[in-house]
């Protein structure tokens, strides 16, 4: 169990490829907490995914996840994934979108 001020997080189901959580808060601060939780969870992946020898598609997917689930700006994403320019983040996300539209297996990989 993880407790923040007025937020209680209990593991509900933990599987190999996903988890479900039970989150309670009396103050209505759930969206702020989930933004923080998603960002913290994705930051755990940054070092592994942005390290040497990693595929650019993995970094692209990480950028998409940051943008989609953490509501952070492209300059912030660029900083988190190794100090790249916001324009490079934008171009990377656009190229990934094209690849996802052309390759259904890749889309499944991102979703699952």
Protein model, in words:
The chain is of the alpha+beta class and 112 residues long. The chain has a single domain (30-111), classed as Orthogonal Bundle (Chromosomal Replication Initiator Protein Dnaa, Chain: A). Helices cover 61% and strands 15% of the residues. Strand 2 and strand 3 (19-24) form a beta hairpin. The longest helix has 21 residues, at 30-50. The chain is globular. It starts with a strand and ends with a helix.
Would you spell out the secondary-structure blueprint of this structure?
Layout: E1 2-4, E2 7-14, E3 19-24, H1 30-50, H2 56-70, H3 74-80, H4 86-102, H5 104-111
Antiparallel strand pairs: 1-2, 2-3
Number of helices: 5
How much helix, percentage-wise, in residues? 55-70%
The CATH architecture is Orthogonal Bundle
Instruction: Look at the structure and give the CATH class.
Output: Mainly Alpha
Shape: globular
What order do the SSEs take from the amino end to the carboxyl end, as H and E? EEEHHHHH
Query: Which structural class best describes the helix and strand composition?
Result: alpha+beta
Mean pLDDT: 77
The main β sheet shows up as: 3 strands, antiparallel
How many E strands?
3
Q: Report the CATH topology name.
A: Chromosomal Replication Initiator Protein Dnaa, Chain: A
Strand content: 15-25%
Q: In what order do the strands lie side by side in the largest sheet?
A: 1-2-3
Q: How many domains is the backbone divided into?
A: 1
Distance between the termini: 26 Å
| Low-confidence runs | none
């Amino acid at each position: 169990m993880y407790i923040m001020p007025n937020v209680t997080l209990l593991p509900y189901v933990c599987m190999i490829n996903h988890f479900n959580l039970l989150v309670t808060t009396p103050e209505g601060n759930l969206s702020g907490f989930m933004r923080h939780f998603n960002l913290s969870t994705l930051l755990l992946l940054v070092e592994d995914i942005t390290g040497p020898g990693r595929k650019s598609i993995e970094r692209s997917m990480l950028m998409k996840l940051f943008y989609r689930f953490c509501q952070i700006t492209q300059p912030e994403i660029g900083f988190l994934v190794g100090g790249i320019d916001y324009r490079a983040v934008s171009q990377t996300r656009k190229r990934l979108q094209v690849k996802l539209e052309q390759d259904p297996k890749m889309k499944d990989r991102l979703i699952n």
